[in-house]
Amino acid sequence: MRTIALRIEYDGTDFVGSQWQNNGRTVQGELEGAWEQLCGERQRLALAGRTDAGVHARGQVASVRSATTHDRATLLRGMNGILPEDLAVLDVWEVAPEFHARHSAIRREYRYLIDNGRVASALLRNHAVAVGRKLDVAAMDTVAQGLVGMHDFAAFCDGPQEGSTIRRFFGASCRREVVWGQPLIVIDVAANAFLRHMVRKIVGTLLLAGEGRLDAAGLAEIMASRNPRRAGRLVPAHGLYLMDVQYPGDGCVATEQTSDK
Question: Which of 125, 127, 126, 129 is nearest to 115 (CA)?
């Protein structure tokens, strides 16, 4: 038996989520179906992060224990030959037997895109959330720095949460970019792990800062309250991307692998 990791990207528009469900298409379901077709074995693939319906990914990671004898190049080519066009395997590599895509991860990075044009882009409608009002991005970035460090993020949890709500936040930034002439606001966050809907609640809170309704002291008060009703609204899912997942040790950083040619 081998343990194999895959880095995958997907457009989440037509998925009901990443984890297997019985009410529609899922990333896990498509991956497991393609793996069975290619390798002739029915295996459960673990995913590094659970993403909701509409959420996209550039650096999601999956892992599987398998008896396949296919090499990396064959697995990469074969999986992409079977998978639908809104899901792709970007890389395949072999890892230690104990590797697990979710449990072994030490850092996850997400990005949120806001279409800040006066007229929402039709091309970005499934990939960025339209907010037409003027936003102070510098203020958003300043407030976001208060997230960095080890904190209790219960105020940014939407719905019941099992276990601890304490997370280590590695970094946060807000900046402007232009895509096809359309002004975007790009929000990047990184932490060891995230609570359910945590990124989307954080973005909703940073929008308050962009509107001049929240400063650094206000963010600290929200965090200390542990009350989700004090935080900003839950923003839509389709602006969110899982960008990267990182692991300890050599050969386990998702974005640094290169596939066999």
Answer: 129
